[in-house]
UniProtKB/TrEMBL annotation:
<keyword id="KW-0808">Transferase</keyword>
<feature type="domain" description="Methyltransferase">
    <location>
        <begin position="62"/>
        <end position="143"/>
    </location>
</feature>
<dbReference type="InterPro" id="IPR041698">
    <property type="entry name" value="Methyltransf_25"/>
</dbReference>
<dbReference type="Pfam" id="PF13649">
    <property type="entry name" value="Methyltransf_25"/>
</dbReference>
<dbReference type="InterPro" id="IPR029063">
    <property type="entry name" value="SAM-dependent_MTases_sf"/>
</dbReference>
<keyword id="KW-0949">S-adenosyl-L-methionine</keyword>
<keyword id="KW-0489">Methyltransferase</keyword>
<dbReference type="GO" id="GO:0032259">
    <property type="term" value="P:methylation"/>
</dbReference>
<protein>
    <submittedName>
        <fullName>Methyltransferase family protein</fullName>
    </submittedName>
</protein>
<dbReference type="GO" id="GO:0008168">
    <property type="term" value="F:methyltransferase activity"/>
</dbReference>
Length: 211
């Protein structure tokens, strides 16, 4: 995925306008065709957690920013009870068709992952998966994201997150660091940070809920 051709000066400063701006940008990706982050293949970092030598026991999973459902389908095929949430209705429609084609029962919810209380998404969840969703959320909504997950996390739950580093996108808000996650996610331990294989700064973060 390449950097967006967006200049910081073009980004709205009002919080509600910024949220609408982000939604419009995401919708544009789906209107233009296949989003660049949707490869139709579950990433090896997820497959290692689900089917590797030290795999988690299947439980309940929440796929945050699930897109067209590639990773939700992978989890469901491996015995997980999956809920997927995405801001874009077009993505949710495609995800439902993908699950139907695979004859899998997955609950897909259109909505904002920073406003889980307004959705039919109740915990506890044993696994949260986030493929570059959090790192694109406007900063003023990130505490709400962390609180929503914390309230729905089972003891010992994992959060596996892929994120771009600050400065990869010229928009003034995209990006995430280990220090930010440690600060925002009270009651969680950051147990692993693994650099991505992209030609620009990215990381895979693994957090574990206390208890």
């Amino acid at each position: 995925m390449t950097t967006r051709e967006t200049h910081h000066g073009d980004i709205p400063q009002d919080e509600s306008e910024l949220e609408e701006f982000v939604r419009d940008k995401l919708e544009q990706y789906y209107r233009d065709g296949k989003p660049p982050w949707d490869t139709d293949v579950a990433p090896p970092e997820l497959t290692a957690l689900v089917a590797g030598d030290a795999a988690l026991l299947p439980g309940r999973a929440l796929d945050l920013g699930c897109g067209t459902g590639t990773n939700s389908v992978y989890l469901a095929r491996n015995g997980w009870e999956v809920t997927g949430v995405d801001l874009i209705d077009r993505a949710i429609d495609q995800a439902r068709r993908k699950a139907d084609a695979a004859d899998l029962s997955i609950r897909f919810q259109p909505g904002d992952v920073t406003r889980l209380d307004s959705l039919d998404v109740s915990g506890p969840f044993d696994l949260f998966f986030d493929l570059s969703c959090y790192c694109g959320i406007p900063t003023h909504r990130r505490d709400a994201y962390a609180e929503g997950l914390t309230h729905r996390a089972a003891a010992g739950a994992r959060l596996l997150m892929f994120g771009y580093g600050p400065g990869v996108f010229d928009d003034g808000y995209t990006g995430v660091t280990a220090a930010e996650l440690t600060s925002r996610f009270g009651g969680w331990e950051l147990v692993d940070v693994t650099p991505g294989t992209n030609p620009f700064p990215t990381n895979w973060f693994t957090l574990r809920r206390d208890g």
